[in-house]
UniProtKB/TrEMBL annotation:
The keyword Transport applies. It is a multi-pass membrane protein. Residues 383-788 form the Outer membrane protein beta-barrel domain. PANTHER family: HEMOGLOBIN AND HEMOGLOBIN-HAPTOGLOBIN-BINDING PROTEIN 1-RELATED, TONB-DEPENDENT OUTER MEMBRANE RECEPTOR. Its main location: membrane. It is found in: Cell outer membrane. Pfam families: CarbopepD_reg_2 (PF13715), OMP_b-brl_3 (PF14905). This is TonB-dependent receptor. InterPro entries: Beta-barrel_TonB_sf (IPR036942), CarboxyPept-like_regulatory (IPR008969), OMP_b-brl_3 (IPR041700), TonB-dep_rcpt-like (IPR039426). Residues 1-26 form the signal peptide. It comes from Maribacter arenosus.
């Protein structure tokens, strides 16, 4: 505890010293005016700033009543401006150079009266992938397959991203410590429910997805793989406006995903919200095979087939309001709630052989409910004390209730399939969780060269985890003492950070950051007493260097240090049976993992080359296979591995074949090395992985487009699966879309997993640990999906404020 004040004092002294410096203020804005051909100012005209080299949209604005517009914080470059308005002919200015260090006013833009049309829409399609200094940005609207897709499906088609629906885990470039943010604020939703929420979130509401593999110091230090930031679309905010979408799909069952969002603004008050509903009922078939040598030296094989009939039903609602007390101060309130319910009826048939001869057969009838109900609230106050300076305060309270009752009816048969007995096993888990988070951030741009950010945060969490597992024999319930327990966790995380960005020249900039986090965790078990008592502090530095060679070539170099803490579910007991001797469970002894990562990005026009190398000590494998030889049980649970080394190379290549055929190709190479010591034996595993993700876009006719996406992944090691190897898989998705204008909306038709080829097969072969398993899971079915979406209300007015909460890291640790 003494280390915390000492480090914070040093950090605050450094930041305060910089803060007291005085610098001259420079502006880097572009302004102008739009009028009609008689000189009358045009209000609500669209103004787009485009990069000349590749027509990339840099920023957009809408003119005021006086016809004036302002584009803020524009970097140096060569640009053109496109102006348009309904009933007028659009126009683009000549190319101009902007030095990025002073304010520039362009000549007045005059629009000529055009032929009266219902509506003229001027659009600038962004590149599907854009590399920035610390993140890759995926422009979701640039892919027509996003229409009718969920945010989770967009992630599954993103380069370097792997989504495991079975274990509710998201990985980025081979690392599973990924945290998800919404509108720049971390989502504190449990990992299992986060996957469900993303599946229920329509991509129609998503503007961009940002893959942030080396986060800056103002981000929480949690997560070895970094962050995925989902930026929701801004809805216009004067008057009432919004959008809705409907989806119906059929495959090996049926699915629907519907949502609506709205925004209403009047004077200083802005009220907004969205609601989404998901129901997915598609049958699944899983297989689990394992072999081992029993205590008598006899080879044993257990083969289980699980025929599942699941139903997933999610309700998600999010609403809030902002009140602008003055031109510089805004107060906001966010409220959100989720009711995510997953139920399943399954028939599991397990055949056991000894020396290749049948020895027994078990049929397990499984009825399960996994439900999470969540309420969250956030109060935010933001004050802009100058043009490029603000102070922001967030206070969050989150409440979760997780329930997972499961009933297993086990019928046992002998080697000749003669019935022996029937056994009823139950597993019940109840976990209420409370989280309170307070956060304050300060940002100030002292000059055109120096920007300072700093902040403090405190997160306080507690939960009670009650797990009961037992078997009914006649009318008597026999508790399993190894799997039944009540646990209580209390955790406190205090953090402080400082970040300094310095522009050395027009082409060179550097950013230095330092974050300190101190953690106290206490986990008490009724049966085992205090099983976790941790108090530790860590420093997390970050460094970014950006160099612009010319208008078409630039590169970035970065370093970051991260921590991956165990999720609440990793530490708390829980049990999910696959068969009587195979199940998932928690592990209170799992420790945090620390990683160091270096990343290099090279950008030439729209071509991206990115290389990253990371070393993680104490890697958390959330579903590592562990064989209990005494009871001959296979347990999938969290544990620490010695070390994981990961090298990744990503190459993004957009190609324009013709004006009607464009493609985006992404190639990823991954080298993963895992080492682990078990019972004195050192295990070393290495795997080279290749991923190819190609999207072909076709313009068939005006407002009629189609798209084909192909994804291939060779065998790979995924850290959350431990020493297991995920076998190769591939998929093809196709879609066609017709736009009828804002009045009539957009209609889309697509087929996911066209060849019904997307299936996961995971192999584990470790003779030293008596482990040899093969598990196949098939979440994906060939599914035909019809979508319809439409906007409503005023669509040509000022946009609503984007913000999230200050409690994002804690949400992701509720699992």
């Amino acid at each position: 505890m003494k280390l915390l004040p000492k480090c914070l004092n040093s950090l605050i002294f450094l930041i305060f010293s910089i803060f007291m410096m005085q610098f001259s203020q420079a502006q880097n804005d572009i302004s102008g005016k739009v009028v009609d051909d008689t000189g009358v100012p045009l209000s609500f005209a669209n103004v787009l700033l485009l990069k000349t080299s590749d027509s990339t949209l840099i920023k957009g604005a809408i003119t005021e009543e006086t016809g004036l517009f302002l584009l803020k914080n524009i970097p140096r470059g060569k640009y053109t401006i496109s102006a348009s308005m309904v009933g007028f002919e659009s126009i683009s200015t000549e190319q101009f150079d902007f030095d990025g260090s002073s304010k520039m006013t362009i000549p007045t833009i005059s629009l000529s009266q055009g032929v009266a049309l219902d509506e003229v829409v001027v659009t600038s399609k962004k590149n599907l992938f854009v590399q920035k200094i610390d993140r890759m940005v995926i422009n979701v609207a640039s892919s027509i397959l996003s229409a009718g897709s969920s945010a989770l499906e967009i992630l599954e088609r993103s380069p370097g991203v792997l989504v495991d629906r079975q274990n509710s885990t998201i990985s980025l470039v081979g690392k599973s410590g990924v945290l998800v943010m919404i509108n720049g604020k971390q989502s504190y939703m449990p990992a299992s429910s986060l996957v469900q929420m993303l599946e229920g979130m329509s991509a129609n509401n998503v503007e961009t997805i940002e893959l942030i593999t080396t986060p800056p110091a103002n981000f929480d230090a949690e997560g070895n793989a970094g962050f995925i930031n989902i930026v929701l679309k801004e809805q216009t905010d004067v008057g009432l406006n919004g959008a809705y979408s409907l989806l119906a799909g059929v495959g090996n069952g049926n699915t629907t995903s519907d949502n609506i969002n709205f925004n209403y603004r009047k004077n200083r008050l802005n009220f907004f919200g969205n609601y989404s509903f998901l129901r997915n009922a598609q049958a699944q078939v899983f297989t689990f095979d394992r072999s081992f040598i029993d205590g008598d030296g006899i080879p044993v094989n257990i083969s289980t087939v699980s025929d599942r009939d699941p139903i997933q039903r999610n309700h998600n609602i999010r609403t809030g309001l902002d009140y602008q007390t003055s031109d510089k101060t805004i107060i906001g309130l966010l409220l959100w709630a989720n009711d995510n319910k997953w139920t399943m009826d399954a028939v599991n048939q397990s055949q056991e052989t000894e020396n290749d001869m049948p020895s027994s057969f078990v049929e397990l009838l499984n009825t399960e409910r996994n439900q999470l109900q969540h309420f969250g609230s956030n109060i935010n106050i933001k004050h802009d004390f100058k043009k490029d300076g603000f102070v922001s305060f967030d206070l969050d309270y989150l409440r979760y209730k997780l329930e997972n009752p499961t009933m297993y009816t086990n019928s046992f048969f002998d080697a000749n399939n003669n019935f022996i007995r029937e056994e009823l096993t139950t597993s019940d888990k109840s976990t209420p969780i409370n989280i309170t988070v307070g956060k304050i951030d300060y940002s100030n741009r002292f000059s055109d060269k120096i920007t300072l950010d700093m902040g403090l945060k405190g997160a306080f969490s507690n939960f009670d985890n009650d797990v009961a597992v037992g078997t009914f024999q006649d009318e008597n319930f026999l508790e399993d003492p190894d799997l039944t327990d009540v646990s209580t966790l209390k955790e406190r995380i205090l953090a402080g950070y400082g970040s300094l960005e310095y522009t050395i020249s027009d082409k060179t900039s550097v950013q230095l950051g330092l974050r300190y986090e101190h953690t106290n965790s206490d986990l008490v078990s009724e049966k085992q007493g205090k099983v976790v008592d941790r108090s530790f502090g860590e420093l997390f530095p970050t460094v970014y260097f950006a160099q612009k060679v010319n208008d078409t070539l630039s590169f970035n170099l970065s370093y970051s240090r991260r921590i991956t803490r165990p999720t609440f579910n990793d530490m708390a007991p829980f049990v999910i049976f696959i068969d009587p001797t195979t199940f998932f469970a928690g592990n209170p002894a799992v420790q945090p993992a620390i990683s160091n990562s270096v990343k290099f990005d090279l950008n030439y026009r729209s071509t991206i080359l990115s290389a990253q190398y990371s070393v993680e000590d104490g890697t958390i494998s959330r579903y590592n296979s562990q064989f209990d030889e005494e009871n001959e049980r296979l347990i999938f649970g969290a544990s620490n591995m010695d070390q994981t080394k990961t090298f990744s190379l990503t190459f993004g290549l957009p190609i324009t074949i013709t004006n009607w055929w464009k493609m985006q190709n992404n190639f990823t190479y991954l080298n993963t090395k895992v080492t682990n010591t078990v019972n004195g034996s050192l295990l070393a595993l290495e795997q080279n992985t290749f991923n190819i993700n190609s999207t072909q876009s076709f313009t068939i006719a005006k407002n009629l487009t189609s798209e084909i996406n192909v994804n291939y992944n060779s065998p790979s090691i995924i850290s959350f699966l431990g020493a297991a190897v995920l076998q190769e898989y591939y998929s093809i998705n196709i879609g066609i879309q017709k736009k009828f204008g804002d009045r009539w909306g957009t209609l889309g038709l697509k087929v996911n997993d066209l060849l019904d080829s997307l299936k996961w097969t995971v192999l584990t072969n470790i003779p030293e640990q008596n482990l040899n398993t093969k598990n196949s899971v098939d979440f994906f079915n060939r599914t035909l999906i019809l979508t319809y979406s439409r906007s409503f209300g005023n669509s040509k007015l000022k946009s609503a404020r984007k913000r999230g909460t200050g409690a994002e890291e804690e949400k992701s640790r509720v699992n």
